[in-house]
Description:
The protein is of the alpha+beta class. The protein has helices spanning 7-12, 22-28, 32-41, 54-72, 108-113, 116-126, 264-268, 272-277, 293-301, 308-311; strands at 43-46, 96-99, 130-140, 171-177, 188-190, 211-212, 220-224, 229-231, 240-249. It starts with 6 loop residues before the first helix and ends with a helix.
Amino acid sequence: MAEVENPSEAAAMLQPKGQRDYDKDVDDLGLREYVDTCDEQGFAVIPPEKVASPEFIERIRNTVLRVAEERTGNQFALDQNGNSGNYHSEPQSDGQFLLYYLLFEDPIFEEWLNNRTMQAIVNHYMRGEGQLSSLTSFVKWKGGDYGEGLGLHSDTPRPLSGELPEGCNDVVNSALCLTDYSEDNGAIAFVPGSHKLRRMPTPGELIDQAVAVEAPAGSLIFFNGNVWHGAVPKHTDGLRLNITTYVCHQRLKTQEQYGRHVPRAMLERNPPEFARFVGAADPMGWGAIGPQFSRYAGWAKEPTEVPAEVLELHS
């Protein structure tokens, strides 16, 4: 294993980047209009035909239902209201619970993280420096309600100054709709343009300007981490399901544990971009053997393959 003698050189090698032209990916996939909308409004709805096949949406929806049944001990059907049963997560209410840490539940979630449309827009905003923070599903049914305030908030971590970043994206997020989204169906709601305010909302602020998203199943709702959003109450029977892919800049701490918790077999069956996206290129959080900078040196020079020295750190 090669030694890295210069600490500054080692630091530059910590996060090897991909070599793709991220703007080209957006244009090649016909996503420019949605990026422009997101820049202006803080969110955009990408239609199903640009996201994934109906067959994939059905498979991932069925997988979410299976995981919900395994964790709650209850049976679920799309046209029936749910119940959290034996499952106790936070936050949780009488009309909604969240399924956390989905990546390790089924290979289909790996498929989703490799989705070209999702990755193209994430990389456009993160310039190849985004890292999966959490992969969850909101399971919501009739009565799911955040109250009069709609739960409006910003996803970007708030610094002590209270001022959110402008020139870069600390966080981007998206909701893959596994059922139809509408106002009656308890859709996510945004305050258009609020990301430009660069701060969190105060209680009750601009609730009257929140707009519920209308989107058919299979759509991808992509949004800026600064935009104010929440959700309207669900007035219809049945489930509202999604996959939420929360991505943070690699300098931030992730919500869920990835990095060296990702098994070697998962890294080996996916492209190197996947390994970087789940934090396998991050040596931080080391133990007694130290950061092992030298293991990552080869990856910086040859980003198309995860070095065996890095794979050795994953059981």
